[in-house]
């Protein structure tokens, strides 16, 4: 069966456009046009599809002139009316009866909405210059590596659908806005490294060496093709400044590039509750988070280290099916099982280093994106604190207590309230909250979950490992991130090299997963 790379010139989702195709698609300009040219071309094409004011066709494809001011976008999102307060259409509402039900949906136009979290992460990096703010993902594949030109063609074909790649946050951190990157050149961002030794180990060694290097100045993202000299495997290492993307945005963006048919945009549901009720809930959510921030976590077994500031990455994998079986049996989610296993791993690690196991506070990022919105853009998440019962010896009791502790993270109503809060809160308040939440006194460990569940992409690209690389804030001894792909669940632990035996945490996590699976099976057999 041919590889994805050999098909990329004939299959329409992957085929790089010719010079004429690119010229027509972008509304004019040369194949080497700048981001500003692409933006102008897209606007020209979009303007030709607008209908005059007063026309009665409400289909999503017929767009009206609209205001793109961030304040208006926040008002539209909070009110759900679909209209800009300046009197110009910012979104269109229509009725969808395709499933036999009358459901009002809102068509969100493909413009940029800056998130206050983007500016908050930009400011956090500026105030902590020694902190590495790049996050990303390393994927390892089998088979012959593609040519660098082929990879650049595939990325170039996605630039119009992923404007985050051709834009930057311009201006001071407190008032930064998205703007086209001047003199954008793809060859500065999509680059290649040849491993010194053959095989997967050589590719991994080169990728980890690249991990130690900071992003070049004025280059907020890079996609490295790491090729093996034996031509039998390779890796793709994508890294980006956290102000540009969070973990879920990275996964969505890579899915949009390498499996574009799976990322087609559809109109998201229109909020049905009154804007005043949603505003009250957003204020309640903000008050609750502020109360958490003002209550620092007690020092536990993971605190009290003299950190070096140098990172290391260790991983472990487990079959995904047993985690799903345990999640169904306990009435929780795969992430609940993962966190319960993290709790068991921290408990075992504490005993190994001679510390008494105790409850550990972790911050859990919650994705606030609508799955039908434009992928790959910015930071749309809320971070909440969860206490892991690391002092609990019995694995099933650890699991049940973890499910109870995370129950408040799963409410659709709370997610909507958090989303409203994100789009309406003053920037200074979000910056203050971000600095407090990333302080180890709030929670010394970040526990993330970045699913990459597109089976077609995994199969076509021959992916064997995916290593998510999340932010390690200053003062944090380690962080933990789960990713799922195909039939595999993989954990990556980024730890400070000064923390003893932290590289054993992934192996201890795998043992805790096996322990939970066995305990659940024995319990079911006993019934």
TrEMBL record:
Coiled coil: none annotated. GO terms for biological process: biological process involved in interaction with host; glycerol metabolic process; response to hypoxia; response to nitric oxide; triglyceride biosynthetic process. Residues 1-63 are annotated as: Disordered. Pathway: Glycerolipid metabolism; triacylglycerol biosynthesis; Lipid metabolism. GO terms for cellular component: plasma membrane. The keyword Lipid biosynthesis applies. It is an enzyme of class 2 (transferase). Keywords: Acyltransferase, Glycerol metabolism, Lipid biosynthesis, Lipid metabolism, Transferase. Residues 377-505 form the O-acyltransferase WSD1 C-terminal domain. Residues 118-278 form the O-acyltransferase WSD1-like N-terminal domain. PANTHER family: O-ACYLTRANSFERASE (WSD1-LIKE) FAMILY PROTEIN, WAX ESTER SYNTHASE_DIACYLGLYCEROL ACYLTRANSFERASE 4-RELATED. Belongs to the long-chain O-acyltransferase family. This is diacylglycerol O-acyltransferase. The lineage of its organism: Bacteria, Bacillati, Actinomycetota, Actinomycetes, Kitasatosporales.
